[in-house]
Amino acid sequence: MGVDGSVWGINAAQQIYSFNARTQSWNQVPGLLTQIAVGFGGAVWGINSVQQVFRFNPQTPGWDQIPGALCQIAVGSAYAVWGLNAQNEIFEYSSPTQGWNRIPGALSQIAVGADGSVWGINSAQEIFSFNPQTRSWNQIPGLLTQIAVGSATAVWGINAAGQIFRYNSQTPGWDQIPGQLTQIAVAYDGVVWGVNSAQEIFTYDTQTQRWDQVQGSLTQIAVGSDGTVWGINSSQQVFQLQ
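RE: above sequence
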């Protein structure tokens, strides 16, 4: 899901779909992908089964292949596209050169906010944030298995025990938030949703500083800053919060 609420998805056959809010239906988009990422302003990128990289061109409409091979991609906007290859090497897309710049370091997971904030986790579960001034990574104390970035002021994570943490830039460090989740999603405006191991759904109330359970059952959730929330259940059925 993009910041503007645009929604894209891939089914089990790697077919690609975008949601048409006007007709309230899914439109199939030509091509096959194994991963898709949507950023601010409708920037859509994807990777296929042989790690080829594609960017959606709304003018065609169709996919433009971008040279390079990646196994993971993260998109904050058209100007903030990052990826990892099979060797955990890190790459940042350069719009002027239309190619990838290798960034020193190694990560197993990367996340990009709509404001261009970049965070990552390595294979040892160590946490890093990218410093655009020094063009290097700052290690952040702690260990996480999942990280979600809405913006520089909205960074959340989950550790191996399912414990939840919110980054506090004032400390700086992590504030543990009561509860346990298996997946977390953070919007640009700081709205946070999550799913636990029982597939129960929760949203974080910043006023009460606690999680409010929402009726339903999901295995995956995504949040847009326009307030839209989408999810998938264990049967791969798609739901939109009303």
